[in-house]
């Protein structure tokens, strides 16, 4: 009897592990399939507003200077004045690192070519120096949001800000640059029935966060969450994973908090 009970327990445990491993992938495949038209709409009409953000860090040593290059993150263009573009991103994407002398924030357009370090091996910093250096217009640790600007003669899309945050069950699409990839669009739905407070690592600030099922990963921080009208409804900050480091849900600052953040920026508001 004991052996049967033990065997049954092992079988149940194996089934639970299999479900835990494969269910997230099945859900993601389902989302991408069910929302294919939405994903294509974003890719065809909004993707040029997606930028990649690179940090160049400079350190001085004894008779030498070294330049570091970040893995990169994401941002979204939401305003334009002549040839000056303004983009939203996450504050932690552009925050200065400790122990460096100087930091430059580089903006890459959706079609700018990344440096293939595996192919070229060196000169990576020089490659990124050809792209526009950003001005940090406004940042807030309280919201983990930032506005940066850069000058370019290229034509990029400028995405409108939604008036209100999406509701539970609404379709959303994430447009970002996961590590090793560019201009990836994923889709899902809002999972949270109400916003919840997310505490930063230091415990100093609590953000109003909404959860969604559009796949995000490392490199998606600062990217746009869009509604079916291709309006910005949130800025992605990160995601939740299970024990097997598989995506469970994305976390985004809702647009109403973005509006408050922009209003604090010298009273500026944007339609």
Summarize this, please?
It contains 6 helices and 14 strands. With 271 residues, the chain is an alpha+beta fold.
Characterization of the model:
The protein is of the alpha+beta class. The protein contains six helices and 14 strands. It has helices at residues 2-34, 36-45, 91-94, 117-120, 124-128, 255-264, and strands at residues 50-61, 64-69, 73-81, 84-89, 102-108, 135-140, 145-151, 171-176, 184-189, 196-199, 206-212, 224-226, 232-241, 247-254. Strands 1, 2, 3, 4, 5, 6 and 7 form a seven-stranded antiparallel beta sheet that branches. A seven-stranded antiparallel beta sheet has the order 9-8-12-13-14-11-10. A hairpin with a 7-residue loop joins β8 and β9 (184-189). It is globular, with a radius of gyration of 21 Å. The model has no long low-confidence stretch (mean pLDDT 84).
Provide the descriptors you would attach to this structure in a database record.
271 residues; alpha+beta; seven-stranded antiparallel sheet; 14 strands
| Low-confidence segments | none
Largest sheet: 7 strands, antiparallel
Order of helices and strands: HHEEEEHEHHEEEEEEEEEH
Shape: globular
Number of helices: 6
Number of strands: 14
Supply the helix-strand structural class: alpha+beta
Helix content: 10-25%
What oligomeric state do the depicted chains represent? single chain
- What is the overall pLDDT average? 84
Give the termini distance in whole angstroms: 70 Å
The percentage of residues in β strands lies in 35-45%
Determine Rg (CA atoms, Å).
21 Å
């Amino acid at each position: 009897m004991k052996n049967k009970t033990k065997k049954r327990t092992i079988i149940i445990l194996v089934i639970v592990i299999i479900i835990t491993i494969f269910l997230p992938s099945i859900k993601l495949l389902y989302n991408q399939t069910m929302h294919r038209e939405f994903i294509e709409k974003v890719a065809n009409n909004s993707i040029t507003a997606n930028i990649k953000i690179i940090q160049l860090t400079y350190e001085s040593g004894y008779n030498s200077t070294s330049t570091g290059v970040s893995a990169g993150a994401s941002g979204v263009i939401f305003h334009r004045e002549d040839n000056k573009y303004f983009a939203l991103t996450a504050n932690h994407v552009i925050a200065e690192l400790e122990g460096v002398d100087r930091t430059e924030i580089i903006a890459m357009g959706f079609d700018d070519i990344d440096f293939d370090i595996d192919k070229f091996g060196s000169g990576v910093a020089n490659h990124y120096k050809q792209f526009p250096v950003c001005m940090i217009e406004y940042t807030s640790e309280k919201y983990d949001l930032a506005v940066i600007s850069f000058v370019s003669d290229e034509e990029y899309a400028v995405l409108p800000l939604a008036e209100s945050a999406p509701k539970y069950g609404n379709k959303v699409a994430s447009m970002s640059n996961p590590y090793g990839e560019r201009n990836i669009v994923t889709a899902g739905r809002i999972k949270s029935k109400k916003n919840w407070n997310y505490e930063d690592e230091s415990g100093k600030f609590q953000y109003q966060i909404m959860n969604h099922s559009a796949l995000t990963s490392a490199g998606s921080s600062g990217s746009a969450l869009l509604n079916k009208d291709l309006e910005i409804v949130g800025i992605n900050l990160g995601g939740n994973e299970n024990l097997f480091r598989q995506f469970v849900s994305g976390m985004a600052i809702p647009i109403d908090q973005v509006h408050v953040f922009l209003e604090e920026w010298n009273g500026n508001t944007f339609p």
